[in-house]
Amino acid sequence: MKWNWGTGIVVAMALFMGFILYLVITMSTHKKFSFDLVTEEYYAKEVVYQKEIDAETNTNDLEEKIIFEITDNGLKLVFPDTFEESKIKGNVFLYRPSNEQLDFNLPLLLENSNVFIPGKNLIDGRWNIIIDWEYDGTPFMYKKSFTY
């Protein structure tokens, strides 16, 4: 067989297609590359999405914003002083997009307008936090992505 440009191009394309096929098979079958969905009930959450938008709008319309701080000991959230702590009811949800087993939910308990989440509950990496609360019948929601 004579080796020429045409033969080289065909061999190179065949090797490239084999490499791409190997990557696709490896990525779709290997457990290392298996990630959870962000949420299991995707379509159910879509139905209540307008309520979330309204709650986020209420949070953005606040004159004093929530202050989010990453400290050595964990996360500190400072709520505006205008809120009466006894009238706030809600929860704090932290989830890790890459691992569903690390997700956790905490009740929203304010102490001197602060919420503290201990660092022992957080593993280094990317996290999303959703604080969902109600004050005097008005829904509020605060969302943030951060790296701990």
Automatic annotation (TrEMBL):
Protein origin, superkingdom: Bacteria
Keyword terms, alphabetized: Membrane, Transmembrane, Transmembrane helix
Transmembrane segments: 6-25
Name assigned to this protein: FixH family protein
Species name: Bizionia saleffrena
